[in-house]
Amino acid sequence: MMKIVRNLENFFEKYIEGFFNKKFESGLQPVEIAKYLLRDMEDQRSIGISHIYVPNLYQVYLNKEDYEHLSPYSKAIQQELTQYVKDEARERGYTIVGKPVVQISSSDELGNNKFKVACNFTEPIPNDSPPESVSPEELSDTRVFTKLPNESNKLHSSIASTLTVVEGLDAGEKFNLGTNRINMGRRESNELPLADLNTSRLHSYIVFEENHHILYDAKSLNGTYVNGHRVTRWRLRSGDRIRLGNTIILYEVN
């Protein structure tokens, strides 16, 4: 990893003259972003029998001042960080599901000295899950990782979340999320039925996995979008805006 981080530092110094001599007001350095990308990649691993899958979409949110400082070089930095993600995944033997992309944008919610990183799958994870009963011999060549508990996971598991329809025919409808599966779409038997004719009968659903709410597209005709991106699987975070047809639903952790 240190070699790859050093390559990043060399890139920024070479192509952005005096980059590390010009301090951000927040003290932010792009190498810090790279380290958080790797941390999120590790956190989102999906382990199968023969592969360990990691997300392909990595989103970096900066406060306005830092984003303006980086914006002249954002395209080059995004390309270099994308290569960093690919190199780190290859070095660890991970399989990236889909084309890897790193996107940098600004967020009004972030104060000084703060940034946010989120990563998710935009393509279906291959059906490579271990069977219910596997002998030790069958698993002898399989790399198995144990996800260590952390405070953020404990926090998510103990706080209630809500879905609020903020745009569309059902605007104002609110639904409390727990650990049960929530189906969404035109079908009346769905936990969250929608009047929107541009949604499928079963458009998408939310399940509770590893102390997080995960949104899945149910092979809908018009697709499922989160924050403007079409997704097939997405780990929800407070403030995410889900679009199904012409309906927009806000996910919030209370």
UniProtKB/TrEMBL annotation:
Record-given protein name: FHA domain-containing protein
Record-linked InterPro entries: FHA_dom (IPR000253), FhaA_N (IPR022128), FhaA_N_sf (IPR042287), SMAD_FHA_dom_sf (IPR008984)
Annotated TM spans: none
Taxonomic placement: unclassified sequences, metagenomes, ecological metagenomes
One family name in Pfam for this protein: FhaA_N
Domain called FHA: residue spans: 182-231
